[in-house]
Design a protein that fits this description.
Arc Repressor Mutant, subunit A
């Protein structure tokens, strides 16, 4: 017999969002935006980084997710993050194309509500500036550790821990065997823990 989902679990939050609960949408953003920000950071080109903020991509990704939520089918704990990462990829591609066409005029990625645009959408992350700053600091700490890893370690951690892909999906993406991916991921996580321990001992 299926029990009711916990209201703060991913599945529970998604069910609340489907009923129009804006607070649940904000909670989903807070829960997933740090991991998604790391993914987006590495998927954006240097040229795009110079023209647009990661947070702009995050806002657009979550707004697109709410518009497409009826198409999403929850399968497991990682399925929502995997789905978000695919949407983010499309948003990044669209942003790059937009900037390629209009390099001299910065586009409005997300028409958020402001004094000059009262009809715009409400910002997804409406928490206090200090809380937003704390989130960005956490993301920066993760980025510094990932930057210190060899590229193949960083890539497999991004796919497994950030994008939520299975070992089989990663193997297909990288053109490696499942065993090879499992060993690579184990070594990458071990190295990341060593970096964590080193930073804590300073």
């Amino acid at each position: 017999m299926r029990t009711d989902p916990m209201p703060t679990s991913t599945f529970g939050l998604l069910e609340r969002v489907r009923t129009g609960d804006q607070q649940a949408f904000t909670e989903l953003f807070r829960k997933y935006s740090p991991r998604l920000a790391v993914l987006v950071h590495y998927r954006m080109s240097p040229d795009l980084h110079a023209r647009i903020e990661v947070d702009d991509i995050l806002q657009e990704t979550f707004l697109a997710a709410t518009r497409q939520l009826a198409k999403f089918e929850y399968r497991n704990a990682g399925s929502f993050m995997s789905w978000l990462s695919r949407i983010a990829d499309h948003v990044i591609v669209d942003a790059a194309r937009h900037h390629g066409r209009r390099k001299r005029k910065p586009p409005e990625m997300v028409p958020l509500r402001s004094e000059s645009n009262p009809a715009g959408a409400e910002a997804v992350d409406s928490v206090t500036p200090s809380r937003v700053f704390a989130r960005k600091e956490r993301v920066q700490r993760v980025l510094r550790k990932l930057d210190a890893l060899p590229e193949d370690y960083r890539k497999v951690i991004l796919l497994a821990k950030m994008a939520g892909l299975s070992t089989q999906e990663i193997a297909e993406r990288l053109g490696r065997s499942k065993l090879n991916v499992a060993v690579l991921l184990h070594r990458a996580v071990q190295r990341l823990r060593e970096l964590d321990a080193a930073s804590e001992s300073r």
